[in-house]
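Notes to self after the Tuesday call (sharing in case useful).
The group wants a holo model before anyone commits to mutagenesis around the pocket. I volunteered. Ligand is adenosine monophosphate. Logging inputs and output together so the record is complete.
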Amino acid sequence: MHFDNSYARLPERMFSRQDPVAVVAPGLIAINPRLAAEMGLDPEVLARPDWVDVFAGNRVPDGAEPLAQAYAGHQFGGWVPQLGDGRAILLGEHIGPDGRRWDVQLKGAGRTMFSRGGDGRAWVGPVIREYLVSEAMHALGVPTTRALAAVTTGEVVYREARLPGAVLTRVASSHLRVGTFQFFAARGDTEALRLLTDMALARHYPHAEGALGLLGQAVAAQARLVARWMALGFIHGVMNTDNAHVGGITIDYGPCAFLDAYHPGRVFSSIDRSGRYAYANQPQIAVWNMAQLASCLLPLIDADPNRAIEPATAVLHGFEAAWQAEWLAQFRAKLGLATADEGDRALIEGLLDRMADGEADFTRTFRALAEGGAEAEFRDPAALRAWEPLWHARLAAEGRTPEQAQTAMRAVNPAIIPRNHRIEAAIEAAVAGDLGPFRALEAALARPFDAAPDDPLRAAPAPAEAVHQTFCGT
Ligand code: AMP
Ligand code: MG
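Result:
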């Protein structure tokens, strides 16, 4: 790796220098060959023992300057002035052959000054889950953190049970969270906010300028991101401000899940008792998180913060139109519509309402509309039959038949998503020493739009014993 560590050059108060804590017996779970290639790295080299040692935290590679980042955050709406990397260590920033800058972070690498009561560790379950889901999101075209490697530690992690320890190598365009800005805003540290703003602009929005420019770009990127989530039936599950990325990428895969049967109020996370982060609440929460970023940036927008409120508020008000426009664009594409018509929202909502009533599987219904046989997804097929003529008429107005639209629809409606029961099965097998199901799922999720009708992993419905609840990735 070729390191150039801009974060480590920030003032020392913005992080804590911390080497990973070595583990007993590093063992390889996976190296991601597709991401390695993008980063200009040789996956075969990364699978050798000296690199497995790096991914386990037993060896610090040349040029790395390990550190834990400081951040704060609102968790379920409640303010926590100090969170920070309690189980993650940023090794440094790798510069790829194309000049792209990649944060390389070990998640589960031992205690840091931000660990509070935690052990700084992760077990195999959440490591495999984040690896599979983040890479699936990337293959589905969603901006996200990535997974370069997963290793076992040979150590036991104590949760509800004794579990095998693991470390995930998370790679990202940065780890700048809304909570990073909040940490310094709460301390009145305007200089740190200025440095973070410059870094966020350089890394994510090089064509924008100033704090207001950053806010505008972050709001627009967040609106696009949430619309993508909605169009895939993805529920993040913990949209706390420390898990809201200023660069508009998906970060922190904890109790996330994809919808099985469509329902706008669906919640999977065991700790989200009030449904704050339910599927349909995600746009509202995203703009709430952006409002927290805006309030951090006020002193940089205008020397008189009162004068900054009006332009910042105007930018925040732009979220609604941006997200609505992106949502419409996404769902139009899902229905194979190439043009925009006033009635499209009603057409799309008409389908979604019927899906909710008919307990139709979100992914399978849209894929079946692209392949035929969607009626079978509905408890009462008549519900779909009443809607389909409206859709066909709308396509006809574009001069197309459903068959002609279906090719384009298959490129945006996935045949496979990382369903909870599949992830759970892959984890269970991995804990028992069999990585076969993990590998099969990883390979299938890398090509989510392929038809491959013989592949039993593709488009299989959730079984009766499907997972109905997910847990935080600790
Ligand atoms: P998360 O739920 O992943 O968003 O994490 C929230 C906060 O808890 C972050 O500050 C984490 O670093 C911290 N945290 C979560 N799990 C652990 C752990 N096992 N040890 C130390 N800190 C942790
Ligand atoms: Mg987090």
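Two things stood out.
The longest strand covers residues 146-158.
The chain has a mean pLDDT of 95.
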